[in-house]
Design goal:
The chain is mostly helical and about 190 residues long. The chain folds into two domains: about 60 residues; about 70 residues. It is about 95% helix and about 0% strand. The protein is built from three helices and no strands. Helix 1 packs across helix 2. The N and C termini lie far apart (about 140 Å).
Length: about 190
């Protein structure tokens, strides 16, 4: 309210200074009656305006003031909400970093487990391949021994046949064949 009282006073001073500025020009004589009527005219017009619209002017400026205060309050609330949102976003970012590290650690652990499984499977496969190779080698050795025994048996049989052929008589030879045939048939 004190501010509003200063407005008419400052307007009065301006109106009073205008004739003085004019008087400083060509004329050095001041027309006091003219100034008096002008000031009185201004005061009457200002008084009528104040009487008719004073309350509305005061309400306007009070409303404007309260509107500005409300806007400042709203801006402070929005600022606080933005600050809170910023903190939430920063926390989510920090949480995302921790979550990313946890996911990476989990995948590293899974990768290590898969690696161990692959190594174990490869070792098992190598053991199986080694066992198969040993079995194959043993089978080949057995086949070679069997072949050698067969060759040896054939060679012994030939040598025996030759020795027997030289030492057996045809009658002894027939008796030997009959005994062999009888033995084979009975089994």
């Amino acid at each position: 309210m004190a501010r509003l009282r200063g407005i008419p006073i400052s307007l009065t001073l301006v109106l009073l200074a205008a004739p003085l500025a004019r008087a400083a020009g060509a004329e050095h004589d001041l027309d006091w009656w003219n100034l008096f009527w002008r000031v009185l005219n201004f005061l009457l017009v200002a008084g009528v305006i104040w009487y008719l619209a004073g309350k509305k002017i005061i309400a306007f400026f009070r409303g404007r003031r309260s509107g500005i205060e409300q806007e400042l309050h709203d801006l402070e609330a929005r600022k606080e909400a933005a600050r809170q949102e910023l903190q939430d976003v920063e926390q989510r970012i920090a949480s995302l970093d921790r979550e990313r590290e946890a996911i990476l650690e989990e995948y590293r652990a899974r990768g290590e487990a898969v690696k161990q499984e692959i190594i174990a499977a490869a070792e098992e496969r190598a053991r199986i391949i080694t066992a198969q190779a040993q079995q194959g080698a043993q089978n080949e050795i057995d086949q070679a021994l069997t072949a050698m025994r067969a060759d040896l048996a054939e060679a012994i049989a030939e040598a025996t046949q030759k020795a027997l052929a030289e030492s057996l008589t045809p009658k002894q030879h027939e008796a030997l064949i009959d005994a062999f045939v009888t033995k084979v048939v009975l089994q």
